[in-house]
Structure formats: C-alpha cells, structure tokens
TrEMBL record:
Keyword entries, A-Z: Cytoplasm
The name this protein goes by in its record: Universal stress protein
CDD domains from the UniProt entry: USP-like
Boundaries of every UspA domain copy: 1-149
Organism of origin: Salinimicrobium tongyeongense
UniProt similarity note: Belongs to the universal stress protein A family.
Record flagged with keyword Metal-binding: no
KW Cytoplasm (keyword) present: yes
C-alpha cells in the first residue's frame, strides 16, 4: 500500500478519522492525503428568480463573495487539519461537487490504495432517503475502504 486518502468534513469527529487514518498510513509506510469536499459552492449565495410565488431572491445579484469565503474557510480548515497531524509530508486536497463522486474521482486520479472515512450517525429516515456518503462510495469503489466508527457509545 502506498497512498492513503483520508476524507474529512467539518464534523468534530473528523479529528478521530484523520488521526486513525494517519496512524494506519504510517504503519503501512504510505503517503497521506487529507481531502475535503465543498458540495457545489456555487449554491452558496445563489440567486434565483421568483418561483412558487416567492420573490425573496429577485433583484439580488450573484454573491460570489459567499462562495469565495466558503473556499477560504475550507482551505483554512485543511491547513489546520494538516498542522494537527504535525507532518509536513501530508498532502491536502480540496474538491468541489457531490461528495461521494468527488472522493471517488480524486481517489482514482491520485492513485489511492486505501480510502479512510468516518461513519457518521444519521437517522434511519435520512439514510432511507439520502443514503450516506460511505454507502455510496462502498457501492462504487474498487479501492479498499477503512471505516472509522465515530459514534460515541453510551457512557462515553
């Protein structure tokens, strides 16, 4: 194994995911890349015409500042995550688009041998309608996936 891609998000449990993924990568003497996905930043601050009788968006121009601010926040987050691991050799990658697809595309492009992700605790209803990123990736990848359980057990 040579390359380990660790997908993280803004959830505080990402600290555990990054740490466990990093430890595994170091034990395998593998290269490490932390990845975060901004889900279509064009939607942040998007302006729409009147629809369904609602005109709250009309008359406002596109707010590119909001999208740029989201990108800047994500870049700061990634730098902070890298600094937390205290290893200058850790790479970072910031993608935009649908999360599962972006992770799969970059994993292939970068040549990842292992994907590391956390398992968030979502409601049954949310899983039924949306699925989870981990489930979508497991359905479509040929790359082994290491899932880090992040849900606290009772009493922790």
């Amino acid at each position: 194994m040579k390359k380990v891609l660790i997908a993280i998000d803004y959830n505080p449990v990402s600290e555990k995911v990054a740490q466990k993924g990093y430890e595994l990568a170091k034990n395998l003497n593998a290269e490490v890349c932390l990845m975060h996905v901004l889900d279509d930043v064009g939607f942040y601050g998007a302006q729409y015409p009147t629809f369904m009788g609602y005109d709250g968006y009309s008359g406002m121009g596109p707010d590119l500042d909001v999208a740029m601010e989201m990108q800047n926040i994500a870049k700061e987050f990634m730098q902070s995550a890298k600094n937390h691991l205290n290893d200058p050799n850790v790479k970072t990658y910031l993608a935009e688009g649908p999360t599962a697809k972006s992770i799969l595309n970059y994993a292939e492009e970068w040549g990842a041998n292992l994907l590391v992700m956390g398992t968030h605790s979502h409601s049954v209803l949310e899983k039924l309608f949306l699925g989870t990123v981990a489930e979508k990736i497991l359905e479509k990848t040929n790359i082994p996936v290491y899932l880090v359980p992040v849900k606290n057990r009772k009493g922790e």
